[in-house]
Amino acid sequence: MGLLDGKKALVMGVGNKRSIAWGIATAFQREGADLAFNWPNDRLKENVLELVATLPGHEAMPVGPCDVSKQDEIDAFFAEIGERSLTLARLFNIREGFGADDDRLPGQVTKPHVTGPLSKVRLDQDDLAGQIRAYYAARGWNEQGVPLPETLSRLQIAEYA
Questions:
Q1: How far is residue 47's CA from residue 53's CA, in Å, rounded to a whole number?
Q2: Among the four residues 23, 103, 107, 157, which has the most C-beta atoms within 10 Å?
Q3: Domain residues of the chain, as ranges?
Q4: Percent helix, strand, coil in the chain (nearest 5)?
Q5: Distance in angstroms (rounded) separating the CA atoms of residues 48 and 16
Q6: Which pLDDT does position 160 carry in this prediction?
């Protein structure tokens, strides 16, 4: 069991096999961390991809463009990692038998309050169902909450479906 089992690490700044970032990445993986990588520009893209390809389990590692001097690239990179993680978690839950029927609020939440400012507010089950369908669509999932093939392909996780 490694010191970093179950931990996740984003490694930025890999330039070549002699870079400090690459040394850190290999040490983190040796200790059990799940890794993600970036390349800052087109010139380093191939270097990073070639190095990452040498790591065991590289197929599951998020790797993408992110110039840390550009906030929009940072935002897009983290959004994609988040979307990928969320979709992988959804696939895991589906595999374990959870589905759209489990995506609901507890009954207590939909009951009206007896007193107070929320006493006249009631959550409508049909409205909640519509919001769930809209959430699925925004995630690139079908109406049953299953990620669509094009979503899995775009996130490079089709092999996990």
A1: 10
A2: 157
A3: 1-68, 70-161
A4: 50, 10, 40
A5: 7
A6: 87
Closest of 151, 156, 131 to residue 141, by C-alpha: 151
Question: What 3-state DSSP class applies to 64?
Answer: strand
Report which residue type is found at 82.
G
Can you give the pLDDT at residue 59?
Answer: 86
Comparing 48 with 114, the larger pLDDT belongs to 48
CB burial readout 111-139, b (16+ within 10 A) else e: eeeeeeeeeeeeeeeeeeeeebbeebeeb
Q: Give the mean pLDDT of the chain.
A: 91
What's the whole-number mean pLDDT along residues 72-88?
92
Confidence class of residue 104 from pLDDT cuts 50, 70 and 90?
confident
Bridge partner residues of 63 (DSSP):
37
40-54 per-residue burial string, b: 16 or more CB within 10 A, e: under 16: beeebeebbeebbee
Write the pLDDT tens digit of every residue in 53-64: 999 989 888 899
**Contact between 103 and 109 (Cβ < 8 Å):** no
CATH 1.10.287.130 fits 70-161, yes or no: no
Does pLDDT of 1 surpass 80? Answer: no
Which DSSP string corresponds to 19-45? SHHHHHHHHHHHTT-EEEEEESSHHHH
